[in-house]
Amino acid sequence: MMKEIYKIKQLEKDDVKVFVRVIRESFQSQHLIPSIYRSKGVEHFILNELDNIFSPYLYFVAYNGSQIVGCAEFKIIAGSDTFFLNMIASEKEFKGRGIGKAILNFAINFYAGLGYKNLQLDVYQDNNAALDWYFIMGFKQLDYKFLYEIKTSILNLEETNIYIQNFPQYKISKESYGFNYFDVMFDNESMRIGVIEDDLIFRGDYSDSVKIVAKLLQDKLHFENIYFIGTDNMTNMAELLFMNKILRMELKIQI
């Protein structure tokens, strides 16, 4: 069989809608929980990001003739020699035909030319097909995190005061893109909490402060789901429902 040749280039504005559709259709909904690609305004966000000449993001698209058959989003990790693969996907009817490898090799050569030496990504432990492919491509596991849902309804906590410091900015961005974050102050402690559609996403250390803020925000602002991503195994916590394990992978670039 003749090897298929795909044209790889950076995303153009006319193709953003297809780019987002391909990614959304390639992932189970549970694998998009912490991803902005499930938000209603992600197309608008990418269109604006394409105008940002100082953007840390790059979007690549693979073509078979004039048809988009694959896509990927990469991000530079500032102050390091590492770049990060946020998303990679291909059209369903083209899976298994070398598109992912073509995009990945193109990106590796591109970033290596800029001096980057490591490529990292996150993959869910139960995403067996993707995980196997990354191992075949030479990635090694670095570490891992856990994804939980916080069931605030079973938390019995005293009500206290918290302060959202960026609510006007949050509201405008959330209405436009479907995602943003809260900068919250509580008891001389600050935390940044992700918001994607009607869900909150906490990251870092799980503490009493996280419990208090999570419950208050859900009770008062009526968020649907509260998620927590952290390094500790906390399946013994009654209010935490284990959802998945997220593996951090790395590939050493050798050109």
The CATH first-level class of the largest domain comes to: Alpha Beta
Sheet with most strands? 12 strands, mixed
Which band does the percent of strand residues land in? 35-45%
Helicity, as a percent range: 25-40%
Gyration radius, rounded = 20 Å
Q: In terms of per-residue confidence, which ranges show pLDDT below 50 for 5 or more consecutive residues? A: none
Q: How many beta-strand runs?
A: 12
Q: Estimate the mean pLDDT confidence.
A: 95
Distance between the termini: 28 Å
- Give, in spatial order, the strands making up the sheet with the most strands: 1-2-3-4-5-12-6-11-10-9-8-7
What is the ordering of alpha helices and beta strands? EHHEEEHEHEEHEEEHEE
Number of structural units classed as domains: 2
Briefly note the structural class of the backbone: alpha+beta
Spell out the CATH superfamily of the largest domain: Gcn5-related N-acetyltransferase (GNAT)
Q: What is the CATH topology descriptor of the largest domain?
A: Aminopeptidase
Q: Write down the overall geometry.
A: globular
Please report the number of helical segments.
6
CATH architecture of the largest domain: 3-Layer(aba) Sandwich
Short description:
The chain contains six helices and twelve strands.
Descriptive notes:
By secondary structure, the protein is of the alpha+beta class. It has 2 domains: 7-116, Aminopeptidase (3-Layer(aba) Sandwich), CATH 3.40.630.30; 148-245, Transcription Regulator spoIIAA, CATH 3.30.750. The chain is 26% helix and 36% strand. The chain has helices spanning 16-26, 42-49, 99-112, 128-136, 167-177, 208-221, and strands at residues 7-10, 57-64, 67-76, 82-90, 118-124, 140-150, 163-164, 179-186, 189-196, 199-203, 225-230, 240-252. A hairpin with a 2-residue loop joins β9 and β10. The longest helix is centred in the middle third of the chain and has 14 residues, at 99-112. 27% of the residues are buried.
